[in-house]
Amino acid sequence: MSEPACLVPSGDWTGEAATWKADEQALYWVDIQRFLIHRYDPASRSTCSWLFDEPPTALGLTTRPDTLVVALASKVILWQPSNDARVDFARPEERADCRLNDGRPDPAGSFWVGSMQNNVAEDGTSVKMTDTAAGSLYRIGGDGRSHL
Length: 148
Hints:
Blueprint: E1 15-21, E2 26-31, E3 36-41, E4 46-51, E5 56-61, E6 68-72, E7 76-80, E8 85-90, E9 98-105, E10 111-117, E11 137-140, E12 146-147
Antiparallel strand pairs: 1-2, 2-3, 3-4, 5-6, 6-7, 7-8, 9-10, 10-11, 11-12
């Protein structure tokens, strides 16, 4: 058995949401606190990164060509990595002190995403949480409507 090895020394602060995109044979993941999404191509051993204006917290596959669903701190977008097109899709969380967190698509085509008290400052540093019970779970349908 081989030993684990670091393939991408990306320096992530909070790397999460690893998602394999089979049609590209590539791995995507987020770095919440540095506002980045990364893509690793094992065949070429290359990594690409995209910067966002706010923390990306989760991502998932869609049935749309070249499109991922991405939860950002304040909203859910549809994102095309090939041209970096970003389209607002849903804004389920209304509380200003909360941000979206972990999420995944389900087999029926909805995107489930939770929210929590925001613990990431505008510069990416950590903010102390005071209300650990804050947050909700949302189901976002294929039409972009949010359901609590």
